[in-house]
Amino acid sequence: MKKIWLRAYCNQNLGDDLFIQIICNRYPDTQFFMASETENPFYESIKNLKVLRFGTEQKIQRKLHLLPFAKEMKKCDGIVVIGGSMFMESYNGLHKLDEYMTMRKHAEKMFILGSNFGPYQTDEYYRKAKKVFSSMDGVCFRDSHSYALFSDVNNVRMASDIAFLSEEQHVEKEEHSVCFAIANIKRRDELKIYDESYKKWMRKQILSFLDHDRKVKVLCFCPNQQDDECAKDILEGIEDQVRCISYHGNMNHMLKEIAQSEMMVSTRFHGLILGLRYQCKVFPVIYDEKIKNVLDDLHAEYNYPDVSQLEKISFEDIMNNCVSTNTEYNRQSEKQFADLDQWLKI
């Protein structure tokens, strides 16, 4: 049995937890190991995943910019970095690139799956990232924009998002239903100034859907990023008219809620992806370039708004300009695992 160390974003975020579930389910005869600072009951449901918790030693190592769990990584046959926004310069980016290079020295095989690149600001970060990617046994981005930046690196590929491989949900669509996948945008410095207008617009659209006899639910993909707090502000005084559902490891329940919906208004990246996966009509609100890049790959014709432009968008705009499922694009997600499939011989 092969042993693989996973580097993922472990903060009880629906999209990232889904990545972890998908890779573990795809290789049931492989034992996965992962480190997490956050307790998450969801991980306990994955039989071939062992989660190590950060203790005092590992926290000190992190502060000293040393690699936590290096001994445990060396005992594994390979390392997989799996996640979406894993290469952003502004989030301690250069140090993380150094960490990946150190991890590479400990691994016989190392792969990067499901990520996008950026945003980045400096040539230094780009050059260093290119060196990291060149040292890997396989890198697969999830959008054409990221791929184009490194298309001259032989081991770099592109396929659609891993979340398109989420399990089929055998449920019927609930007539006249719409879900809002909201995000607490004020946690990002560059978006703080739009927080009040964003929440005001979300509330206005929810009320419009209610006025048109739609069944509305609000989904909070990551309570640890204060999605719940944002939902509370948006729904003040109308809580009894709207179902609000938060992700606390209840993966299947959340996926069913999406699959039952006819429409999705999503600020969350994986609200867009999962809405398309489960044949919802999706109206995306752009808070990050990664959403715009995926919309470009989908050849979306409508100029979808970012959070600074929402006052221009009406209920009618939402109803008439949704993104629809592109089956061929969805199927490309299988290729994310091509290098790993070959190594693990499945």
Structure write-up:
By secondary structure, the protein is an alpha/beta fold. The longest helix has 17 residues, at 195-211. The protein has helices at residues 14-26, 56-63, 70-74, 93-106, 123-134, 144-149, 195-211, 227-234, 251-259, 269-277, 289-297, 315-320, 327-331, 338-344, and strands at residues 3-7, 31-36, 49-53, 78-82, 109-115, 138-141, 156-158, 177-182, 215-220, 243-246, 263-266, 281-284. The chain folds into 2 domains: 3-158, Glycogen Phosphorylase B (Rossmann fold); 177-329, Rossmann fold. It has 14 helices and 12 strands.
Give a short synopsis of this structure.
With 346 residues, this protein is an alpha/beta fold.
Strand order of the largest sheet: 3-2-1-4-5-6-7
Structural class: alpha/beta
Q: What is the CA-based Rg, rounded?
A: 20 Å
The helix-strand sequence is EHEEHHEHEHEHEEHEHEHEHEHHHH
Provide key terms for this protein.
Rossmann fold; alpha/beta; 14 helices; 346 residues; 7-stranded parallel sheet; 2 domains; 5-stranded parallel sheet
What secondary-structure arrangement, pairings included, does this model have?
Blueprint (H helix, E strand, L loop, with lengths): L2 E5 L6 H13 L4 E6 L12 E5 L2 H8 L6 H5 L3 E5 L10 H14 L2 E7 L7 H12 L3 E4 L2 H6 L6 E3 L18 E6 L12 H17 L3 E6 L6 H8 L8 E4 L4 H9 L3 E4 L2 H9 L3 E4 L4 H9 L17 H6 L6 H5 L6 H7 L2
Parallel strand pairs: 1-2, 1-4, 2-3, 4-5, 5-6, 6-7, 8-9, 8-11, 9-10, 11-12
